[in-house]
Amino acid sequence: MVNKVELLAPAGSMDALKAAVENGADAVYLGGRCFNARQYASNFGEEELEEAVRYAHKRGVRIYVTMNISLKQEELKDVDDYLKSLYEMGIDAIIVQDLGLLKLVKERYPDFPVHASTQMTVHNSYGVANLKSAGCSRVVLARELSYNEISEIAEKTDLELEVFVHGALCVSYSGQCLMSSMIGGRSGNRGTCAQTCRMPFSIERSRDGKHLEASGEYLLSPKDLNTLEDIGRLIDIGVKSFKIEGRMKKPEYVAIVVSKYRKAIDSYIAGNGETASAEDNHELAQMFNRGFTKGLLGGDFGESFISIEKPSNRGIYLGEALSVQGRNVTVKLETDVALQDGLGIDNGSGESKSATVDRIYMKRKAIESASKGEIVALDLYAKVSSGDKLYKIYDKKLADRAKETFQDIEQEKLGLDLELEIAIGERPVLKTVYGGELVTVEADRLAELGVKSSLTKEKVTEQIGKFGNSDYEMKSLELSLQDGSFLPLSVLNELRRKLSEELDSRRIKLENRQRDAVNPFDGYEFKEHSYSGTKLSAKLGKLSQAKYLDCEKLSRVYLPIEEGTESVAKELKSEGVEVYVYTDRIVRDSEFKSLKQNLSKLGESIDGVMCGNIGALEFVSSEMPGMGLCTDLGLNVFNSESAKYLERFGASGVTISPELNFKEIEELTESYGFEYEAIVYGYLPLMTMVHCPMSLVKKCGSNRDCERCEFKSGYELSDRKNMKFKIQRVKDITTIYNGQRLFIPEHIGKLESAEISYARLDFTDEREEISEILDIYHSALEGVADRQSVERYKEELGDKAAFTKGHYFRGTI
């Protein structure tokens, strides 16, 4: 038996919502005016949201509202009213990134369905299990998972799983990207991403600056996902919801893409075989494409995944400019063209130009359209040269056809089988069955014995059937009318209106609210921690860095889990240092077995584990009880409620987000006393991704040989401003690091004032200088470091521009 699935469409405007609904979406996700990850979309105000709910629910379509950003402490006070509004409005579910917000929702409205956003970076079954325990009804899986990995997760849970099937892709794991934030202050975790990944980059060798030639310059810009031909595979492995990206896209785009996926899903479920025709794929490409990829989901890698030549819409290739005379451009058509189509012009320089087809000539005769293979002259108001490539980026006929599906349409009416009882001295009763339930309304007035006239069956039938512009029409009427009964016709009209209103109410009734839902945080006693001073901790990228540590100046060290960890841990512990190991941000299901073996082997040589993702936290807390636990920056702790969430699931300490400034940190720590850790030194990780930029140099088609690759370290990206970003690839995962080191020893007192328990030094590939950096920070905590000594250290390294204060002073939008 084929699983019942949901087609989930985006909407950034009311027209886009109508386009989604009228073209077959089962549900629509959209954003309100605040707390969502598309702050630059039109989004919906409160009245528009109410209109959207009415429109969708009357047509049997669900509405999900995105609240998928990380929330700062100050913003939590505004959440309650917004949640109450959404809950009472009848929103079917909210999509959430912030763990603290998830906690608040479940405490206030246990029966309000919550979907865990892809921004939570859920990529293993333990992450899914944790979110189920927290009350989520659905998890949107990371887009980096393969079909096999999704299938394995689906087999281990009864929670609904949602997967992106079409549209723009992030190159980094969603929720693990600080690139836009650190470069320009616009945070992807806050809904204001500047799409830095769509900018040009080059690759250089770190040791000598040698430029390496790639096959293009857009090294981080993915193609658009297209799984239309593989939709059956996702249905078979147990995916519940198929998500189309595009809240920033036009309604016409939504209409066409939704219609194609509706057709594909229905065709597969019906057993018709083919789910996508050549025409379907052509029209998808025409609406918008950066080139299509089957995604990491389908095993694409390197050039099959990255739109290396152009980061924006490619359109459909129209042909080469054979000759140009004035505004007339002669082209042999590679696809059809018509008046008012929009063209993109590529002259090979990277400069983007566009034009509208004002006239078409064939053999000097004006025509309205021409077909593939024909030679025509196009009248274009743009500078075009012979040899330029022309692309059709807007198809007017296709756009008009899309508009016809949602503009000025008449809603199909719902036929009603009615029963009406009218008896003298009784209130008339009108009944129908909807959704398997009896719907009954009663008149406000008693029927009387007619004196001069009485009701006839013909008159009652005519009057009760006048549903007018409502969504209903009378299909049949079973009438029980006592002879001699009389009622004003206005009473019958009011009875009919009452039925329409009750049906409206029933049609928007929430079917997925579980009134017996329980608060998963109820009964847990949160225990505030008392602050005992700020101590130094260090996270080592390599075990070999341990020899540069002065343990008298450190309270805790975080070690990678690898061969030799146990002996290093024992040595550090013998010097009085607390030792934790840390997991990677990405831990696939296939890696948990070895993780458990390694942790069991380490045993008492370590004091605990710092978990890089929610699944790792769930795994250690459930499989290795008694192990000390804290969390790393990948869990995006922006507020005290997130800290409480993580405490509820076993953590005794959390790393706060590096996107917070000093004021925001103080607001967080004042709200709840906990063991907070802040990163104060290091090359911050800006992107964590499966994609490898070096694959575009090596022309790799897969990640099979990454561990043996000579390019896995020692190289860096360079942007247009010549800023450098270090590249490191470990276990098939690439991390892009900020080229500027976070360095704030002179401001460490501000973290002490905020009662931060640990100030952490993150070392990646540093060696001898570790001792000096540790000494500077230790002196700062002891109150003996001064600004001059800090500046002297920077000068010794020779480049003051290589340092940054991160967001500690500026914060993010």
UniProtKB/TrEMBL annotation:
Enzyme Commission designation: 3.4.-.-
This protein's record includes keyword Disulfide bond: no
InterPro entries: Pept_U32_collagenase, Peptidase_U32, RNA/ubiquinone_mod_enzymes
One MF annotation (Gene Ontology) recorded for this entry: peptidase activity
Keyword Protease among record annotations: yes
Pfam families: DUF3656, Peptidase_U32
GO annotation, biological process: proteolysis
Keywords (A to Z) from UniProt: Hydrolase, Protease
Stretches assigned to the Peptidase U32 collagenase domain: 390-507
Name listed for the protein in its UniProt record: Putative protease YdcP
